[in-house]
């Protein structure tokens, strides 16, 4: 935010307070889960008090960065980022609504879960990738902003009514089956556009930026998000297919890869770009960061395929042949062991990445060498 707005953070002290409040509250919430202190709603298990704490912390965060944006340079990247972050906060408010009717509960539940992932988060993801493309590749800002408008338009057009693919089997009216099938099919478009965006920006730049690792994580983010959220999402989004696949390991495969691509890799890309500069040294360990990238992506791909194959077997045995859930689970143990092994490899690669960005190299420098951006 300070780098894009070209001004200091409105209140660094508020940011520190907000961080520790969130850290402590999140820790206490997780401990509460261990002692079964929760509301029992998947992903929205937090108690009412914890939800209030989340809202307070988020409002502190939004106030700080919004005030920073207002006093600094106004750019399309910042505007879209703020729009996404405020949307993220707004849709979380539906987490407080917990009706007794399960069908009604699920309709509003997806307002949080779906419209975060395939709605406002795509705006955040697009704006962060745009920032990285400008800083790493030195692409003209006007070119990047045109791509941003296209991505945001596609994300909102497909994502809002695309929520309908979650309404197939929860007791909602039947028209959601064709609405959900149509618009959720289009949800592939913004993710594919982000892949084209990152590759075209890198190809046109022809620039030898010293931080190769950050560029690799940025491009990888768009690619893995496309396959996880786009391709694997499309595999079971049509109502005629979802009738058999919903609630199976096919859904888990989609969720794992989509979360990794759209959330995890975006954060790792920003860390690979920012931390070497913040710590005042050149990224001499970026070969380790690049190695962790390939190991992590390979392990996540293996995990995704293992869960996909498990889901296909589960569909045949459970949904077609009619075997019981637990009997089928016993026959999927091989796939679960593969998932466990690939998860362990992901952990190792994550430790490699942490070492690469946090542990000093052989030499230190005052700051990461920056090139003048033509759009700045």
Describe this structure in words.
The protein is built from 14 helices and no strands. The protein is mostly helical. It has a domain at 210-365: Up-down Bundle (Four Helix Bundle (Hemerythrin (Met), subunit A)), CATH 1.20.120. Helix 8 (188-205) runs antiparallel to helix 9.
CATH class of the domain at 210-365: Mainly Alpha
Helix/strand order, N-terminal first: HHHHHHHHHHHHHH
> What's the CATH architecture name of the domain at 210-365?
Up-down Bundle
Structural class: mainly alpha
Q: What sort of overall outline do the alpha carbons produce when their principal axes are compared?
A: globular
Main sheet properties:
none
Count of helix runs: 14
* Termini gap: 15 Å
CATH fold call of the domain at 210-365: Four Helix Bundle (Hemerythrin (Met), subunit A)
> Proportion of β residues?
under 5%
Low-confidence stretches: 364-375
Q: Compute the number of strand runs.
A: 0
Mean pLDDT: 91
What's the alpha carbon Rg, rounded to whole Å? 22 Å
SSE layout and pairing:
Elements: H1 2-5, H2 12-34, H3 48-71, H4 76-92, H5 102-137, H6 141-159, H7 175-186, H8 188-205, H9 212-235, H10 239-245, H11 249-278, H12 286-320, H13 325-330, H14 333-358
Helix pairs in contact: 2-3, 3-4, 4-5, 5-6, 5-8, 5-9, 5-11, 6-7, 6-8, 8-9, 9-11, 9-12, 11-12, 12-14
């Amino acid at each position: 935010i300070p780098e894009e707005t070209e001004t200091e953070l409105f209140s660094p002290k508020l940011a520190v307070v907000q961080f520790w409040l969130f850290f402590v509250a999140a820790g206490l919430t997780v401990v509460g889960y261990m002692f079964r202190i929760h509301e029992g709603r998947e992903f929205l298990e937090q108690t009412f008090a914890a939800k209030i704490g989340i809202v307070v912390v988020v409002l502190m965060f939004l106030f700080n960065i919004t005030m920073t944006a207002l006093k600094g340079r106004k750019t399309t990247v910042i505007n879209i980022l703020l729009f996404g972050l405020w949307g993220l906060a707004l849709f979380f408010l539906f987490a407080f609504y917990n009706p007794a009717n399960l069908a009604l509960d699920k309709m509003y539940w997806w307002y949080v879960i779906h419209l975060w992932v395939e709605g406002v988060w795509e705006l955040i993801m697009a704006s962060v990738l745009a920032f990285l493309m400008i800083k790493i590749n030195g692409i003209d800002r006007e070119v990047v902003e045109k791509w941003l408008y296209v991505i945001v338009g596609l994300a909102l057009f497909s994502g809002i009514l695309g929520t309908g693919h979650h309404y197939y089997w929860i007791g909602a009216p039947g028209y959601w089956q064709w609405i959900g099938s149509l618009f959720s099919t289009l949800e592939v478009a913004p993710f594919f556009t982000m892949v084209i965006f990152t590759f075209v920006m890198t190809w046109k730049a022809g620039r030898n930026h010293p931080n190769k690792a950050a560029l690799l994580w940025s491009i990888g983010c768009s690619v893995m998000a496309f396959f996880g959220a786009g391709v694997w999402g499309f595999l079971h989004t049509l109502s005629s297919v979802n009738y058999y696949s919903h609630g199976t390991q096919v859904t888990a495969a989609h969720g794992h890869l989509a979360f990794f691509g759209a959330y995890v890799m975006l954060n790792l890309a920003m860390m690979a770009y920012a931390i070497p500069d913040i710590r005042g040294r050149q990224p001499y360990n970026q070969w380790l960061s690049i190695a962790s990238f390939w190991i992590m992506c390979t392990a996540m791909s293996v995990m995704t395929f293992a869960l996909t194959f498990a889901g296909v077997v589960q569909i045949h045995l459970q949904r077609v042949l009619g075997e019981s859930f637990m009997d089928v689970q016993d026959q999927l143990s091989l796939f679960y062991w593969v998932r466990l092994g690939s998860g362990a490899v992901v952990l190792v690669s994550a430790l490699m990445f942490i070492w690469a960005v946090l542990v000093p190299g052989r030499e230190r420098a005052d700051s990461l060498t920056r090139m003048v951006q033509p759009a700045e």
